[in-house]
Amino acid sequence: MRINKLIIKNFGIYYGRNEFVFGNGADQRNIILIGGENGAGKTTFLSAIKLAVYGPLFLGYKSLNNKYLDYIKNKINIYALAEGNNHASIEIEFTIRNHGEEEHYKIVREWKLLSQTIKEYVRISKNNLILSNSEIEGFYNFLRRYLPPSLFDFFFFDGEKVQQYVLDAYFESNVKEAFMTLFNLDLFDILKDDLLKYLKQENVFSNLTEEQRQYTQIEHDLRHQKQVIQRLQQRIAELKEQLRDSQVRIQELELEFANRGGVIAHEREELNRKIFAMEQEKKLISEKIKETTASLLPFVISKKILQQTITQLENEDRVQRYKTLKEELGNEALPHVLGNLARKFSITDHQGKEATASFVEEVTNQLLHFLRPIGVDVDQFQIIHGMTREQKHAMSELFQSVQKFEGKQIDLYFSRMDQLTQDIYYAKKQIEHSLKDDTLKEIVTKLNEEHRLQEQLKYEIEGNEAKLTEARKFYNELMIQKEKTAKRVYQAKKDENIFNICQKLIKILSKYQEVQISKYLGTVETYFLQMFNSLMRKGQFLNSFKIDPYTFELTMLNHANSPVFKHSLSAGETQIFFLSLLWALLKASKQQIPLVLDTLFGRLDHAHKENLINKYLPVAGNQIIILSTNTEIDEYYYNQIKDYIQQEFLLDFNRETNRVEVSNRYFFQKVRN
């Protein structure tokens, strides 16, 4: 993909019409240099490219929805709206090589705000011919295969964030996803999915054996569950990235507040500590209330039923003991003992006749009658619960807790919650009233917004991580079911049929995919070593670099064949590492994808900067977009790379006109003709 032109109109910080013409890539120069101070519109520039190409997919949505439209609504330039101009648009032209042929695309996304409602209008043309609705759908399907948003993001290099990105737990997964897409190896997974879908067709599925249907269903569920896990992992990574960004913004705002507030800043810090402690106490009380209402309150409400249950359990216990005694004593033991006693003491009746039998019977009946539970009709009584001793003990403890419950503790909890809420409110008001100027108030407002955002992000991360744990658990259960079902399938195997053919095809595809992965990984590993060692300073090189074909775990050995771990690399070395990996993936796959480099030189020393300029940038790709301030790529480094620059732009936000002024030059050059 090569971007040829971008036009931004009334979107974000860009007021009015702003045009960027990148050229057609006819010469060997490959750098698009975009300069600008912080806040001049560099980030919005990149967002505009992605939004124009992907639409709702830019935010992870498959189609238009309210969240996407709300995002657009908030991005329409406020100064344009103030003038009554409710139109915004982004237009992009780019070239994609498909099956060896260049295809030229133009996408125009236009938005109109009508009565607080956003309407989106999209026009897409290919080689100057407008696409129909069905052709547009086909184009989107092609784009999702050729260059999904995740792949576009992977080739966006941010020097300030690259270290945390490389050390992230999902880095290997991101590398694998990019690799599989670049080399079209995910096509095999699509084919395997298609085979499973074929088996799931009613006319085919109904002709399978019960074991084969179970196996097919489990395979289908496994693939679905794997997608669920991947989506959750991606969402968690996105949320954590947003959380890190929020933490950085809070640190910046805190520093600005301290610089402006002096003593007030110290007082505010103390108040914030108290607020935090009170909010933690509120959280703890809230958990206690939830625990009480969830575990005890339902039984308090149904105390009468609980009492009946306890009575029933006690009666069950008494009846069971009585029946056990009656069975064990009344049948043999008691008559035997009483008979021996009667004979020993010569028991006779009132007429003096021997009365052993009648004595035994009478004593047995009276003893059992004495032991018989009072108030219970033993003959008609039914055992309902049949609980174990531990269960009965638990019910007894629960009943005792319910009897002791008076509701006063809950009232105390709520009273304390109300008191804490008031104290927090007054503490925050105290912070606000202590501010002497509007600037400090604005900073505090922003800080409060960021703290609220952080809590929301943390809550969502916790929720998604809980879902991820459950999803992985379910996936593992499915794997166990699959293994068991597979054994039954092959035990019950009879004739060669469509199920067996599909299973063989899936095995063949999996095997071929494994072979291709190993083959292409070998090429990537070779290119990586070549670039990494050329960029590092003398004496700092790797002897081996391997990527596991299954887990994509990276293994590195230095010149002494000792392991080198990612976390042991410095910030600058991590940048070199990631840039080398990007180049290796692009070169091995022969794909043309714009490489976006933001804060490229931020963490590098002079020697590494020189190596990047001379050995990396000329060969990194057919189109490299570099975003920079004048302190990062200064006049010296500008002169070093100017022979590779195809086009350059300078973004300057004019606060008098509230417009981004775009000129065809960099900081140290005059406007080009």
From TrEMBL:
The name this protein goes by in its record: Nuclease SbcCD subunit C
The keyword Transferase is assigned to this record: no
Claim: GTP-binding is one of the keywords in the record: no
Similarity comment: Belongs to the SMC family. SbcC subfamily.
One Pfam family, short name: AAA_27
Subunit structure: Heterodimer of SbcC and SbcD.
Keyword terms: Coiled coil
Coiled-coil features, chain-numbered ranges: 215-288
Annotated source species: Anoxybacillus flavithermus AK1
Domain of life assignment: Bacteria
